[in-house]
Please model this.
Amino acid sequence: MTPQPSGPLAGLTVFDLSRVLAGPTCVQMLADLGADVIKIEKPGSGDDTRGFAPPFMPGTGESAYFVGVNRNKRSVTLDIAKPEGQAIALELIAQSDILVENFKVGALAKYGLGYEQLHERFPGLVYCSITGFGQTGPYAPRPGYDSLIQAMGGIMSLTGEPDGLPQKVGVPVADLFAGLYGCIGVLAALRHREATGQGQQVDIGMLDTHVAWLANQGMNYLATGENPARLGNQHPNIVPYQVFPTADGYLVLSIGNDPTFKRFCDNYGLSHLLDDPRFATNAARVGDRALVTETLSPVLRQYSTARWVEELEALKIGCGPINTLKEVFADPQVQARGAVLTMPHSSNPDGVRVIANPVRLSETPVDYRMAAPTLGQHTEEVLSARLKLAPERLAELRAKGVI
Model:
């Protein structure tokens, strides 16, 4: 049997109709915090990300992509397009606190699983919908994809070298942020339900969340009415706060204020710059960033990255190397924080290595119960325990392709 959940959300059940990344990210966070997740997958194929490979996790035949965002979930294969599948879904939803889905707007209504239908029947259900553009507005019917949202949401216009192509971020941040905002919305809705008994719909649009995290650059536009330029690795509001070449590689130098800039100058023979109005304040340096870069670059090229990191850390000046992923996972700080762990997997007795949840709770730590499930791994377990279906009935449903 599956290990029992523990943590602040233990005792809550999630009926998970999400797939790919945004929804599974939201649900994995809920699962890590102790919710019992029943992940519904289409018989025979399952979550699309099961096929997003190679690479596969060693010894499992499971895609690394799928394993990364489906920890602590129980997989139940169920065809909700079939009436018998819909009936089973409704029975499971009746025992659930949260439903998470990322179907196109209105798509679940044809199966009797839309928000309005379920809210009337289960008024305490928290129903989280994650879509590309939200439940309303002219773009609501459109599908949403990470690179599309990065383009439409403005981040690509801000990313890349000034004279190069617009660039997307190297990981699917539009999906990830939508999932995390979805989790925040679910937790708020649970608090409201706790106080009133009333469920509600959490409406997450990937474009909405993308616009929300434009942060300082979005505010820069609102303040000036001007589109921020692409600056490569430079900061729009702070200088010097960028990548510099060193004698053997590159360094990120993050000088966040004038006293730190003075400390840098005083220690590296540049005190004369402090008398130059073009360097004296951060505002002046932002206004003449090309001169600052041209002046500091020869200085940073004098020493190796390792030497710079050692010296600047001693001076309490922000800096760091540009690590490859191999270097990231070998970093002593990353290792000390337990950023990678090995979890048992039904296909590999040695387990699989996964990236840990970054939330550290002193009293109710994250609950690592099981690695991502194989397709339909828990179908019989869930349906027999929750719905009391006999082996003969399960065999009949399987023969019909319902499960």
